[in-house]
């Protein structure tokens, strides 16, 4: 059974989301200044909430131990970092740059693991190599995986539909090349379901009315053709969903 956290108010959602991440940081570090917090983050709408909930939140910000964070990407689009579609590029612009320069001083930031940009544009062999190299960087397991859920029920770059079965059926490799993403760009890499299943905590974030139908399919119908549902089914007790009222409009309040 997954945990549902619902919010009528956007500020409250953002604040509680930041507090949830802080809690997971604290249990991973347990006061040990040599320990690290391994977190995998998603792209898209997640970045703004990470900025608001972690960098711009005056209660949370002072408690984040950024130098002990090891940040990885759940998926990455195979474009140069300066391309607006790059998940790392957007994260840098939205979260890292403001963090590093916050408060008129230079703050020490987290260690961020990106794909090998020099291989982008190198075709099939290079794309497979990007996935392979990225897999070799991943920790044995994540303390926290932060997931989005697309309007079609995809999460990471694991898409629903027969032509994408090779992605959700991958049970050996930790990272795979997605060569036919229905959402641009078509070339991406993504962590696989076993990596998510090994995580200590998994948290989905869904906001806005464009998500209301898919939230109904995921949380009420539980359509197991949807990758987001597969995550819930695999490790439900470790999964928390953060929803705003617009995304949860079709979910009964007592759910
Ligand atoms: O393409 C992607 O989409 C999903 C969902 O994004 P959202 O903007 O609808 O929240 C995202 O989680 C993933 O990282 C990204 O590459």
Automatic annotation (TrEMBL):
Gene Ontology cellular-component annotations: cytoplasm
Localization, UniProt: Cytoplasm
Domain Glucosamine/galactosamine-6-phosphate isomerase: residue ranges: 10-233
Taxonomy, superkingdom: Eukaryota
Keywords attached to this entry: Cytoplasm, Hydrolase
Gene Ontology BP annotations: carbohydrate metabolic process; pentose-phosphate shunt
Pfam name, any one: Glucosamine_iso
One Gene Ontology molecular-function label: 6-phosphogluconolactonase activity
Family: Belongs to the glucosamine/galactosamine-6-phosphate isomerase family. 6-phosphogluconolactonase subfamily.
Entry-linked NCBIfam families: pgl (TIGR01198)
Protein name per Swiss-Prot or TrEMBL: 6-phosphogluconolactonase-like protein
Top-level taxonomy: Eukaryota, Fungi, Dikarya, Ascomycota, Saccharomycotina
């Amino acid at each position: 059974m997954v945990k549902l956290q619902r919010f009528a108010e956007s500020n409250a959602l953002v604040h509680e989301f930041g507090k949830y991440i802080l809690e997971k940081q604290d249990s991973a570090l347990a006061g040990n200044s040599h320990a690290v917090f391994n977190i995998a983050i998603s792209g898209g709408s997640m970045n703004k909430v990470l900025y608001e909930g972690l960098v711009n939140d005056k209660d949370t910000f002072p408690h984040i131990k950024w130098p002990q964070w090891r940040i990885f990407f759940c998926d990455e689009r195979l474009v140069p970092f300066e391309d607006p579609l790059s998940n790392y590029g957007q994260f840098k612009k939205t979260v890292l740059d403001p963090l590093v320069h916050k408060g008129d001083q230079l703050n020490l930031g987290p260690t961020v693991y990106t794909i090998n940009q020099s291989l982008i544009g190198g075709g099939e062999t290079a794309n497979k190599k990007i996935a392979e190299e990225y897999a070799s960087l991943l920790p044995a397991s994540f303390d926290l995986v932060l997931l989005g859920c697309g309007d079609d029920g995809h999460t990471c770059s694991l898409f629903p539909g027969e032509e994408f079965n090779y992605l959700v059926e991958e049970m050996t490799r930790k990272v795979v090349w997605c060569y036919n993403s229905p959402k641009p760009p078509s070339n991406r890499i993504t962590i696989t379901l076993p990596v998510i299943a090994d995580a200590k905590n998994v948290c989905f974030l869904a906001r806005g009315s464009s998500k209301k139908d898919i939230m109904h399919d995921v949380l009420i119908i539980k359509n197991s053709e949807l990758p987001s549902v597969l995550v819930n089914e695999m490790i439900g007790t470790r999964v928390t969903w953060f929803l705003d009222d617009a995304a949860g409009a079709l979910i009964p309040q007592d759910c």
